[in-house]
Amino acid sequence: MVRPASPQTLIERIQANLSSEWNEDLEPVIEPLARRLQKFFLPIAQEIAYDETLSPGCLQSLMRIAVGLRNFRIWALKFLDSNGGIGVNKVDGNAASLGGYDECLSIRVPQKDQLDQEFVGSPNATWPIELMEKLPIGMRVGICIPSKCENSIVTHLTQKDLSVRVMRCFSARVSYLKLITRKKSEENRDLDCVHGIRVFSSLWILLAHTYLGDVGLYDRGLHFLSVVRSPAFSIVVQGMLAVDTFFAITGIVVYRKLYSAIVKERILDRVCKYKRKMSVVTDFNWDHCNEKISVSKLVPMVLLRRGIRLLVPSLAVTCLLYILPLITSGPGMDAFYPYLRNNCDQRWWTLLLFINNFWSFEFTCMNNQWYNAADMQLLLIVILPAICIVRQPRQGLVAIAFFTIFSMAYTAFLTIYYNAAPTSVILPRQTLKVLQSTLRIGDQALPHLATVCVGILGGYLMEHRKDSKISSLGMWTGWLLSGALSFVVVFIITIWHRRGEISTAEAAAYAFLYRPLWGAFVVWLIFACGTGRARKYS
């Protein structure tokens, strides 16, 4: 007995045939678009696939969409096309981008061997509540998801969208929650202690700038000279060591990032070779096998990311300089603002190129931005040796050792050549020495190169020796030695403050040693805490 097909079945068959014809006729047109959508959607799908909260049906539906995109299916493109985005006319107050509601509902995804629908589109027309709370005004964006998926998947899709990430960057609440979060990332769990070190180092810098500001504004200057002789005040004067702490952390993080990228490439290469050797036929994306990370691609990528992270706050502070007259006024503004404004009017472009520390103090734009320039310059120097350590450890370690010794010798040479103090000390009888150190040496990049190199060596140590067995005696020796060296580095200037002067030999020796020694102390602290060997102290 033959039962006549229902009208709905006939309609579905006609739509399926039309879709098949469209795929053949429009494939040359939609192929470039589909490939671009694949690059955006597939990484998101891969991350969502590891979410334990997703149901098997939802996960299977997402995989079908990914396969459909790869095969240039019209229905797969409709899923992405019906989603709302950042929208238009946001400046004029448009707060909604609901996407294609009817298009989403009309999507029918066929099974592999049948024309019966397997799942359909399901619109979700609001942002997650958590994201709504973090925005100053409500926004509504439509997102089309498979009918077998729960609304929780929307959170993943929105958090990965570029426009959402850009808006979240300017959310004070999001930034505050990140600062106080107690969640630990398993990938970088051994570096969690770095965040605490950064906080204390930032407070140390603020403390130093609070007490070592404009000397002309000091009250009871003679009393200040007596305070300087106190050992406790050496902590304030040595605030520059907190800056070298950041340079040491930079070395550690740079090596870890490069190591992670290169090792992932090696693992992927092995997987591709294995699948080719075993002739495994799966839905494995073979395009990834051709996307190896070469040095010519890795280096610009690392430099660009670092440059953007440093440049955005730097330009924000520079813009603040130009609106400062609208915020404050007074004799200090009248005396110094024209000088600061004139330098930036003429040399603002040096901030974009990270070379503002090439100019002397009286000509530089935003002298307090010397750290950003030095950080970028040091990254340019050490990135290739750091990559070499990952791929050829012996040659890379030799190069890093050479740069470390060169930086130490260069700093000692400048100290002798300019007859400068080794660091920021307060010596009224040798004021010229102190000024030479501040104006000629402190804001250069090369004197801090040794600290970054020590940080890179620390990153290598943490990555390859974190599981090495160290006896209790070895740990106590490490703590006592690092503690003693850091104590000497910080408080030895008390001797010079009480004496009122420092010899050239003392200045050269201290300048030669103190930065790498302080970097070694920071590395030991992070190594001990990050590997779980300092639970009594962390």
Automatic annotation (TrEMBL):
Keywords: Membrane, Transmembrane, Transmembrane helix
Signal peptide: none
Domain of life: Eukaryota
Coiled-coil residue windows: none
TM annotation in the entry: 193-212, 232-255, 310-328, 370-390, 397-418, 445-462, 474-496, 508-529
UniProt entry tagged with the keyword Transmembrane: yes
Domain Nose resistant-to-fluoxetine protein N-terminal as annotated: residue spans: 55-176
Family matches, as Pfam families: Acyl_transf_3, NRF
InterPro entries in the record: Acyl_transf_3_dom, Nose-resist-to-fluoxetine_N, O2_lipid_transport_reg
Gene Ontology molecular function, alphabetical: acyltransferase activity, transferring groups other than amino-acyl groups
Protein name (database record): Nose resistant to fluoxetine protein 6-like
